[in-house]
Design brief:
Layout lengths: L2 H15 L17 E6 L4 E6 L9 H13 L6 E6 L12 H6 L4
Parallel strand pairs: 2-3
Antiparallel strand pairs: 1-2
């Protein structure tokens, strides 16, 4: 893959993540700041480190599964590994400006 093709796949992964919403908060998981790292390699494997708004989130399994399923659909992705992490702990400072505006937290 060329560097441009890799960047295109990475962009498509981010766009996909921006279409996955936390069921309890009307903001996508990317802008909510739940995605800590995306590591894509040209072999098609992507590893995503993500967190939750709270460690005891009842929707954790559903969110992780949704990320796995949706990112696996991205052209150029052959395998998805989602790693749930809790360090650093999530807080609202990790949210994008768009998310803060959406939730009237500015």
């Amino acid at each position: 893959m060329t560097p441009e093709e890799i960047l295109e796949v990475e962009k498509d992964i981010v766009l996909t993540l921006k279409n996955i919403y936390d069921p309890e908060i009307p903001v996508n998981i990317y802008d909510l700041g739940l995605i800590y790292d995306i590591d894509y390699n040209p072999s098609g494997e992507v590893t995503i480190q993500m967190t939750l708004t709270a460690p005891n989130c009842p929707m954790a399994d559903m969110l992780v599964e949704d990320v796995n399923i949706q990112v696996a659909k991205v052209k150029g992705v052959s395998k998805v590994n989602v790693i749930l992490v809790f360090e650093p702990a999530w807080d609202k400072s990790m949210m994008s400006e768009e998310a803060l505006l959406e939730l009237n937290l500015f």
